[in-house]
Structure formats: structure tokens, C-alpha cells
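Materials and Methods. Structural model of PTHD3 protein. The 291-residue sequence of PTHD3 protein from Oxylabes madagascariensis was retrieved and submitted for structure prediction as follows.
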Amino acid sequence: RLSCIRNNIWLASCGVLSSGLAVLSSFGLMLFCGVPFVVTVANAPFLILGVGVDDMFIMIASWEQSLRKKDKSNVKSLLAETYAEAALSVTITTLTDVLAFFIGTWTAFPSVRSFCLYTGTAFVFCYVYTMTFFGAVLVLNHKREQGNRHWLTCMRVDVGKDPAESSCLYNACCIGSCSRQPSQPEGEHPMSIFFKKYYGPFVTNKWIKLLLVLLYGAYLGGSVYGCTQIREGIDLRNLANDDSYVVPYYDDDEKYFSTYGPRVMVVITESVDYWNESVRLGIESCAQNLE
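The predicted structure was written out as C-alpha cells:
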């Protein structure tokens, strides 16, 4: 928002911070418990950030809805209404994610098991921080807005001051506009207006609904067909960069040596007297028998 009071930059930053705290807490707990840290676990923070930011948007949207229904001075009632609207959605999302990753700990692959343990635990901490830390941040931000305090400096802004008496810089920073006209009360968010006045009526048109059903049917059919084409295995060639020397190596290996099958190697783990001719003959005889 352009308003220096209603701007929620710090609120959004604390939502991201909440996800970061969840990652730190979960990683610290798992390392303390002796769970191995593998390279794939490094991808977990991106998953936690996605879910945490999604929960943050749900909480903020529910808070904004509560502000329109309840008395803005009754913080307890506002927060209770927010949790009543948002907590169910956040809880179900967290439960399904945690269940999915903890089921993944049953796998026989140690790296996957570690990844699922770290990520599932991080989702639990993310839920706890969203329900506690971020809820407290919502209340503090609301009190700042009620006190007409600047979003960055938290200094009180004189909203009743005549803009014509102030400099353009002051009006831009503390009012939200460089014009010298008195500021108007903030209306509904443009994104909300778009979905309510334009997008909603568009998708509820009967021809659009029919088109969407047909598109979804085509998408579903393509998905089912794609599932039938899945094959087990992995092509190591696809793991390398396009300009890597590994790519032509695997191409040549497939072209010239694929008919021979995998290479079989024999390793002699003991000390051998290679100077002894009888020993050398014995090794050659063994190799011939294996061939």
C-alpha cells in the first residue's frame, strides 16, 4: 500500500522470518538428535518457505476480513475471529504435509528418510510459529496502525496536518502522495475489486463454465495418459549439464558398448607375489573361468 500507516512490509517480512525460524528450529533439533544431514535436506527450506508464506497470506486475509466485521479496538475479538477463519485451513494443510513426509520416513533409502524427517519436523515448527509468533506480530502491527505510526520509523504521523503546509517529501513519505490534496480514506484493495467485479462474473458465465469443464477433462485425460508412460529408472546423462564432457561419454557408451552389458571387475584384496609365474598363471586361469 502507498499509505505510510497501512503499509505491511514489516508484517510480510515477519511472515518470512517465521518460516526461517521454523527451519532453524527443526534443523537444530534433528542435528541434536543425531539425524544425518544429507545434501537433499538443503532443499527443505524452499518447501517450508512456500508453505509458510501461504499460511501468512491466509492469516492476513482473515485479519482483514475481521477488521471489517468487528470493533477495531477490541484486539482479542479480532484475533479470535482471525483464528476461527484461518486456523482450520492452516491446520489441515500442515497435517497433510506432515503426514506425507513422515510416511516417507518408512523408505529404505537413508537419504530420503533424512529429508522427510527434517522437512516434516520443519512443517510442525512452521505451524507453531504461525499460530503464535505471527499472530502476535499481527496484533503489534494493528496497534501501530491504530496509533497512526509510520511503518518504518514507528513515529506518530500527523494525519490531520494540512498537506499544503508540508513539503513534497514529507507528503510522499508520511501521507502516501506527493500531491498537496488532503488524503482520502483508503478504499478496498484493487486486487479484491478485480476478482469481485470482473473475474467472478467472468468465470460464472455458463459458456465459460462449460469451456472450463472441457479443458479440465482434456487435462485429466492427458494426465492419465502421462501416468501410463512413466518408466522406472534414471538416465545419468540427464543429470549433467548440456555442455559437460559426461554427455558425449554416455552417448558413446550407449552407442558402442550397450550390447555387452555391465562391466564386471575382479579385485584381489590380498597381497600377491606377481613375480611368481605360477601365481600369474593362476590369476589368468581364474579370469578365463570367469569369462
